[in-house]
Automatic annotation (TrEMBL):
<keyword id="KW-0963">Cytoplasm</keyword>
<dbReference type="InterPro" id="IPR003786">
    <property type="entry name" value="FdhD"/>
</dbReference>
<comment type="function">
    <text>Required for formate dehydrogenase (FDH) activity. Acts as a sulfur carrier protein that transfers sulfur from IscS to the molybdenum cofactor prior to its insertion into FDH.</text>
</comment>
<feature type="active site" description="Cysteine persulfide intermediate">
    <location>
        <position position="106"/>
    </location>
</feature>
<dbReference type="Pfam" id="PF02634">
    <property type="entry name" value="FdhD-NarQ"/>
</dbReference>
<protein>
    <recommendedName>
        <fullName>Sulfur carrier protein FdhD</fullName>
    </recommendedName>
</protein>
<comment type="similarity">
    <text>Belongs to the FdhD family.</text>
</comment>
<keyword id="KW-0501">Molybdenum cofactor biosynthesis</keyword>
Length: 263
């Protein structure tokens, strides 16, 4: 049984020149250690929901698995904070592209600069999707509407995957990478093709987020915030359309505008 995403605790609030006793909601921070074929692979600090999707998406993103059939079984023991993964193949976790590590919820370091397997698993997009301005604005509005725990606590990153029309799936986590891995894991688990899908993200488009999008395989990433210069360089190299500052009926297109369809 998954743990609660939030807790309510007493706090003191300073307001109108005095301290008052009240309560506040805040998000849960939860460590889960991933064991692959009986060996420890990584510990992820995350929000304790959709853990199976998180583990599946993380392993695919790290190049441990490449398809659903690589996986024999995932069992989650959230009472002890372990995910036990059995693969249909043997892998050498001591290979230099796999480094046992802790993935924190902090977003201060770009993993793209630290791990060589990013270069091995990031893909040049061959997406043929076309999206219209009204779809872009609508998808961002829907992400904002779905971000209920963020509105409650202010402590989560939110992400969604959509085709701009009928399909839409939302995930949230204290770690921005985790939110995207949950969507990736969901897509693998449900056999949903991602090539002609769009990622919608609540935070800035940094280089590691752009690389994560490339690993998933989408051709478009949307954000209400700004990109970094390195993210745009990578987006141009990997044929990904990056669109940011989506707010108040406007947005900026930073790379590969050919996917934008203006009536």
């Amino acid at each position: 049984m998954e743990q609660n995403m939030t807790f309510n605790q007493p706090i003191l609030r300073y307001e109108h020149q005095e301290l008052k006793e009240t309560t506040d909601d805040y998000v849960t921070e939860f460590p889960i250690t991933i064991m692959v074929n009986g060996e420890e692979f990584a510990t992820i600090i995350c929000s304790p929901k959709n853990l199976k999707e998180l583990v599946l998406g993380f392993l695919a993103s790290e190049g441990v698995i490449f398809k659903k059939s690589d996986l024999m079984q995932i069992s989650i023991d959230d009472s002890k904070g372990f995910a036990h993964v059995e693969l249909n193949k043997k892998i050498n976790l001591k290979d230099n592209k796999f480094t046992q590590r802790m993935i924190s919820s902090c977003c201060g370091k770009s993993r793209s600069f630290y791990f060589n397997n990013d270069a091995l698993t990031a893909k040049i997009s061959n997406s043929k999707i076309k999206i219209k301005p009204n779809q872009i604005l609508s998808m961002m509005d829907q992400l904002q509407t779905e971000s209920k725990i963020f509105q409650q606590t202010g402590g989560l990153h939110n992400a969604a995957i959509s085709d701009g029309d009928m399909f839409y799936e939302h995930r949230a986590d204290i770690g921005r990478h985790n939110a995207l891995d949950k969507l990736y894991g969901y897509s693998i688990q449900e056999d949903i093709p991602v090539r002609n899908k769009v990622l919608i993200f609540s935070g800035r488009i940094s280089s590691e987020i752009l690389i994560k999008a490339a690993k998933i395989g989408v051709g478009v990433i949307l954000s209400k915030s700004a990109p970094t210069n390195l993210a745009i360089e990578i987006a141009n190299d990997l044929n990904i359309t990056a669109i940011g500052f989506i707010r108040d009926g406007s947005f900026n297109v930073y790379s590969h505008p050919e996917r934008l369809e203006i009536d």
